[in-house]
Design goal:
The chain is an alpha/beta fold. It is 38% helix and 18% strand. The relative contact order is 0.15. Bound molecules: zinc ion. Residues 176-177, 179-180, 248, 251, 253-254 line the site of zinc ion.
Length: 261
């Protein structure tokens, strides 16, 4: 699925009007908005995180968004996956979300892929991007996304939400990575998933909004406030903590990326 109307080098009148509240913003100018227009962003997962992140980036004017998700829409998704309605049940999430983004902003390009991101295709998806946003629902995919981003030196912003709790962090080419933070052997039991443990409607939307916000800071202003930092959001106390994390000298993903780059 492609809209080819954003190949002009500059923002046209309709785009200037659409993004006028951003362009007017102190600290966000035409240059930042044009950077968004030329940005390629991959969103892994079109669920509770991906729906909100994708919609915000589409509205803000990110020029090319690629969505990947293997799942179909179920009734129990509708409580938090804000792009979907009862009429969409049984449809593929990535396809339905892509159509929604095109309705929201006809000036951007949207591509979607129905399937899993895995070892066989991760490099191909990741290397075309300026930024990867992970909102998937399982640790296996998270490690694959992290490794592909490190190997191809593409920045990654990863968000997750479970119950009343959320996490957000950024990994860059030269930084510590997800596996440094959460070594694989400690996560071997797959841990918690929304499907198993429940999640309040608002938790993924809060975390996705923070993820999209960080993506705009990075793409438009070259800012990386959460690089090598883990933001923890507690939805019961509404407190937020930010912890620094460091490279693990035994991390196999970081070692592998050193030999490639
Ligand atoms: Zn690492």
């Amino acid at each position: 699925m492609n809209n080819q109307d954003n190949l002009d080098l500059e923002l046209n009148d309709a785009e200037m009007h659409l993004y006028s509240r951003q362009i007017l913003l102190d600290g966000w100018d035409l240059d930042a908005q044009e950077k968004l227009k030329f940005a390629n962003v991959l969103i892994v997962g079109a669920g509770g995180i991906g729906c909100t992140t994708a919609e915000l980036l589409a509205r803000a004017g990110v020029g090319k968004i690629t969505l990947i998700d293997a799942d179909t829409i179920e009734t129990s998704n509708l409580q938090r996956q804000i792009a979907f309605t009862p009429a969409d049940i049984g449809q593929f999430k990535s396809d339905t979300l892509a159509k929604r983004l095109m309705q929201i902003n006809p000036h951007i390009r949207v591509e979607f892929y129905v399937g899993k991101l895995d070892q066989s295709n991760a490099d191909e998806f990741v290397r075309q991007q300026d930024l990867v946003l992970d909102g998937c629902d399982n640790f296996t995919t998270r490690y694959v996304v992290n490794a592909a981003c490190k190997k191809n030196a593409i920045p990654l912003i990863s968000a997750s939400a479970i119950g009343f709790q959320g996490q957000l962090f950024m990994v860059d080419a030269d930084s510590a990575c997800y596996e440094c933070l959460f070594p694989k052997e400690k996560m071997a039991d797959e841990g918690l998933r929304c499907a198993d443990s429940g999640v309040l409607a608002t938790t993924p939307v809060v975390m996705a909004s923070l993820q999209a916000h960080h993506a705009l800071l990075y793409l438009g202003l070259d800012k990386s406030p959460l690089k090598e930092k883990l933001l923890l959001w507690d939805g019961l106390s509404m407190k937020q903590r930010i912890l620094h994390f460091e490279k693990d000298t035994n991390c196999s993903t970081c070692q592998a990326s050193l030999s490639v780059n």
